[in-house]
Every structure is written in structure tokens, then in C-alpha cells.
From TrEMBL:
InterPro entries found in the cross-reference section: CheY-like_superfamily, NreC/VraR/RcsB-like_REC, Sig_transdc_resp-reg_receiver, Tscrpt_reg_LuxR_C, WalR-like
SMART domains tied to this protein: HTH_LUXR, REC
Domain Response regulatory: 7-122
Organism: Lysobacter gummosus
Coiled coil stretches, renumbered: none
Protein name according to UniProt: Response regulator transcription factor
Residues recorded as bearing 4-aspartylphosphate in the entry: 57
HTH luxR-type domain location: 147-212
A family per Pfam: GerE
SUPFAM superfamilies with a match to the protein in the record: CheY-like
Keyword Transcription on entry: no
Length: 215
């Protein structure tokens, strides 16, 4: 009896990219169980569909890919995550792996690599393209290296506040959405700005865009 096809959820906010990935993976016998265009929908569909592998971008609206990986790793550790992104910087690669990603490849990789990566990630062997493999090897050689990642030092609640600020919500609106007091929201907001070393919302948005945390 042949093995069951790998069940994959694709997360990318660009429709053309998703459709290309669906076509490519289906031609290789992969079962595409869902598609998501933002981070929150990715989490919602992953909880409902329980895919074997989530193929996700890092830059997505409503919730970044890094935060999606962290939450999937906490809530659905059996689901493997393969990052497919434009980001080649060491900071992104190491943050994704620390968050729980099992594989990492960039979008200018040959298309044939994606199918191999999905299969490898599904078996738990992991898959890291040349950029990711080099970054991981470098980190092993220099574990003391400071990557300077203030976003990674935010608490889960502070990251929620971070994204709501970046979306343009006021402190009162953040308090209402998170069901917390305005004073608590003010405190979270102040700590987020302090940890990121930014002075106001405009600088926070620029930081988020520079780091690929927003579209």
C-alpha cells in the first residue's frame, strides 16, 4: 500500500505565489489541504486542518511568519514548518530556527528543491538551503555572537501590542481588542518602544518594515 500523500498548508500573502506553489507541489503528489494569506488565518487553518507541513513566508500581514512559527511550535509541535522567504540575512534564518522551523529556503531557489524540502521536513530530517546552512554553521562556530534582535526579546503579549501599534491602533483600541485596561496597554506600549529603542509609532513602523515584520 503506497504511503499517504503529505498534507501541506501554504501561507503566503501573494496569490500568484500561492498558486504557483500549489501547482508545483500537487504535480509532485503533495496534498494541499489549505492556503492562507495572513498569519492569523495560517494559525486558524493549522488548528483546524492539522497539516503535516506548513510552508510559510516570513512577511505576512496581521501576524509575522516568525510569530506564526513560534505559536505553531507551542500549540502543534507535531506540525513541521518550512520557511520559504526572500530573506537571506542570518538574523532571520537563526530566529526562524530558534522559533521552531524545521527547514529554511529562499524564494530564488530552484523549483525542484521545494518538493525535496517538503519531503525532508516531513520526515523530520530538516532542510536548509545554502544560505541557511552557512548561517547555522557560522552560529555553531561563534555561539557567543550577538544578533541584536530586540523583537525576539519581546514577550508574547508585547509582540501582540507591537503588531497592533504597527497597524495603527490607538492605546484605547489596543486595550479594547486585548481586553485589558488602558493603563496596562500604556505600560505594554512603553515597554515595546523601550525594548526596540524607538521613540514613537512612526519609528516602530519603520522598524517593522525594515525587519520584514509587516508588508
Amino acid at each position: 500500500m503506497p504511503p499517504a500523500p503529505i498534507r501541506v498548508l501554504i501561507a503566503d500573502d501573494h496569490t500568484m505565489v500561492r498558486e504557483s506553489l500549489v501547482s508545483l507541489l500537487r504535480s509532485g503528489g503533495v496534498d494541499i489541504v489549505g492556503q492562507a494569506a495572513d498569519g492569523l488565518d495560517t494559525l486558524k487553518q493549522a488548528q483546524a486542518l492539522r497539516p503535516d507541513v506548513v510552508v510559510t513566508d516570513l512577511s505576512m500581514p496581521r501576524l509575522s511568519g516568525l510569530e506564526v512559527i513560534r505559536r505553531l511550535f507551542d500549540s502543534l509541535p507535531e506540525v513541521r514548518v518550512l520557511v520559504l522567504t526572500m530573506h537571506q540575512e542570518d538574523e532571520y534564518i537563526l530566529q526562524a530556527v530558534r522559533a521552531g522551523a524545521t527547514g529554511y529556503m529562499v524564494k530564488d531557489s530552484p523549483a525542484s528543491e521545494l518538493l525535496a524540502a517538503v519531503h525532508s521536513v516531513h520526515t523530520g530530517k530538516g532542510y536548509f538551503g545554502p544560505q541557511a546552512a552557512r548561517a547555522l554553521a557560522e552560529q555553531l562556530r561563534h555561539p557567543e555572537r550577538d544578533l541584536g534582535n530586540p523583537y525576539g526579546r519581546l514577550t508574547p503579549r508585547e509582540r501582540e501590542v507591537f503588531h497592533l501599534i504597527a497597524e495603527g491602533l490607538t492605546t484605547k483600541e489596543i486595550a479594547r481588542q486585548l481586553t485589558i485596561s488602558v493603563k496596562t496597554a500604556e505600560n505594554h506600549r512603553a515597554r515595546v518602544l523601550e525594548k526596540l529603542a524607538v521613540r514613537n509609532t512612526a519609528e516602530l513602523v519603520r522598524y517593522a518594515l525594515r525587519k520584514g515584520l509587516l508588508d
